[in-house]
Amino acid sequence: MKTLKIQLALTILLFAGNLRAQTTTADYGSVIPQPALLEEPAGEAPFVLDGRTCIHPGAGLAREAEFLREYILEMCGIEVPIVKRSPKRRVIELRISSQITGREAYAVEIDAERVVISGATSAGVFYGIQTLRKSLPVADCTQVLLPAAAIGSTPRFGYRGAMLDVSRHFFDVEFVKEFIDMLALHNINRFHWHLTDDQGWRIEIASYPRLTEIGSYRPQTIVGRHGEGGYDRIPHAGYYTREQAAEIVRYAAERHIDVIPEIDMPGHMVAALAAYPELGCTGGPYAVRTRWEIADEVLCVGQQRTLDFVKGVLDEILEIFPSEWIHIGGDECPKQFWKECPHCQRKITELGFDREENPEERLQGWFMREVSNYLGSRGRHIIGWDEILEGDCVGPHDIIMSWRGDKGGITAAGKHIRTIMASEKVLYFDRYQTPGRQQVEPLGFGGCNTLERVYAYDPLASIPAGLEKYVLGCQGSLWTEYVATENHAMHMFLPRAAALAEIQWADPATKDYEAFLRRLPRLLEIYRLYGWTYAPYVLEEIRTLTPENHKTTDKP
Ligand code: ACM
Ligand code: ZN
């Protein structure tokens, strides 16, 4: 499917006739995220990448060599063989090097004889490959000149995340893989997979089969933000089998991406309640939600069987997902049912929270702590949305994902708890992208996080001096209430993912939005090569740049 799309894109380019150059030149200056070091000594002969070039992988880098071979073929149409013995010349060497410090850092050295891509680990080599790939032209050509250069970079943050919500709208395995390909292109190393919510349970759990038999299906979906258009009367369903999820984990791991599953609890659980109503405070009946508001119905955490259920689900999640971190949600959990539920109230008394100011908040805190401890006993740690700070329950190994602005991250860092910045005000990609012109965009959640706004964000700007080390990184999140198709999902994610990549990886001292816009067209060409839809509004911004340095080949 992917190969077909690329062949089609290259054929269109050929017929368009505008990129049929025989010899083209790599452009390291266009790479996003920008490498920290880029030196191109004047007067030195370039390396010639053509049919006589080969790739020689060092030990443990066979898969990386295969990626590089595929990328060169896809980008330029040049077939470069992988060889077991290194020739003296015309070779791209992949190496693990103890000279490089930083687990994901890379160096790319290019002279007339060879290209050497090195890293302290295979991940570093992979990012060096990504940089070389992104410097290549998208053009069917017989040779590419790689100017002599020394390129090197190390990421600013260890956690460079992106989230996809597959509950509100389900996306199939092929698209999830394509989304992971997009992450790899942007040097993103964590895929946060929002697998469960009120509107659909999307992961098979063998010991609770009704979660997918019942919870993965809704008979219809609200039309418009508040139901202005009624309901669409179109059933929406889908889930990943355990094997499919494991396949996604393997696919991501090859691309040096950890998959962090999210099982959102104790709120956002109506799909599970529809399947197992005894887990709710009233016993139901419940129905998988067909609207988007926060649901009042949540797990009844006063019952032992609820904790047993959660542990049973997580046991299977741990079998599928090797990630050190498991996201357990914790956001937006209304507590009115708990106030009236005999089980929940009994638990509150038993725990002594009835003598405290906000007993139901403490009850959620206790529940999150129980789950965190359980995962801790299995060698894993939790990530929770910033609401979990409110239950006075956060342990030293827990991680706070700050989504309601930066304040959760600031509070967490102040308590010496690690945090990931994921502010809805900047990094939620379900928001609009053009200020004041939302009528030209598809229906979105509201709010406006422009490309420039994402680019301008600094995850550390609001963190008090000395506490920066508690910020692991940042994440862009694609919620899909209003995003029902793959093209729409890509339109929301691209090119904001490019700005995200830059703030996750590059040195903020080198930030310059106009320069970023000038670098963007080559990445847009790569999006087009893969048939990835991107939000076109940026083309207008690029067009308004001063023409003398204007590099784009884009046609609106
Ligand atoms: C969230 O957006 N409810 C984490
Ligand atoms: Zn209850």
Measure the end-to-end span. Answer: 26 Å
The level-1 CATH class of the largest domain: Alpha Beta
Helix content: 25-40%
Supply Rg: 25 Å
Q: Ions, cofactors, ligands: which are bound? A: acetamide, zinc ion
By CATH's scheme, which homologous superfamily of the largest domain applies? Answer: Glycosidases
Structural class: alpha/beta
Give the integer mean of the pLDDT values: 94
- CATH topology label of the largest domain: TIM Barrel
Give the tally of structural domains: 2
General description of the model:
The chain has two domains: 2-153, Chitobiase, domain 2, CATH 3.30.379; 161-438 and 463-470 and 480-485, Glycosidases (TIM Barrel, Alpha-Beta Barrel). Helix content is 34%, strand content 17%. It has helices at residues 2-16, 62-76, 122-135, 173-185, 210-213, 242-254, 270-275, 304-320, 336-340, 342-350, 359-377, 407-414, 424-427, 451-456, 486-493, 496-505, 513-529, 537-543, and strands at 23-25, 37-39, 47-49, 54-57, 91-96, 106-110, 114-119, 143-146, 149-153, 159-165, 190-194, 196-197, 200-201, 217-218, 236-237, 258-265, 325-329, 381-385, 399-402, 418-421, 471-478. Strand 4, helix 2 (62-76) and strand 5 (91-96) form a beta-alpha-beta unit. It is elongated, with a radius of gyration of 25 Å. Mean pLDDT is 94; it is low at 14-20 and 551-556. Bound molecules: acetamide and zinc ion. Zinc ion binds at residues 281, 300, 302, 338, 341, 343-344. Zinc ion is lined by residues 281, 300, 302, 338, 341, 343-344.
Helix-strand blueprint:
Elements: H1 2-16, E1 23-25, E2 37-39, E3 47-49, E4 54-57, H2 62-76, E5 91-96, E6 106-110, E7 114-119, H3 122-135, E8 143-146, E9 149-153, E10 159-165, H4 173-185, E11 190-194, E12 196-197, E13 200-201, H5 210-213, E14 217-218, E15 236-237, H6 242-254, E16 258-265, H7 270-275, H8 304-320, E17 325-329, H9 336-340, H10 342-350, H11 359-377, E18 381-385, E19 399-402, H12 407-414, E20 418-421, H13 424-427, H14 451-456, E21 471-478, H15 486-493, H16 496-505, H17 513-529, H18 537-543
Parallel strand pairs: 1-8, 4-5, 5-7, 10-11, 10-21, 11-16, 16-17, 17-18, 18-19, 19-20, 20-21
Antiparallel strand pairs: 2-9, 3-8, 6-7, 6-9, 12-13, 14-15
Helix pairs in contact: 2-3, 4-6, 8-11
The structure holds acetamide and zinc ion.
The site of acetamide (ACM) has 4 residues, from loops.
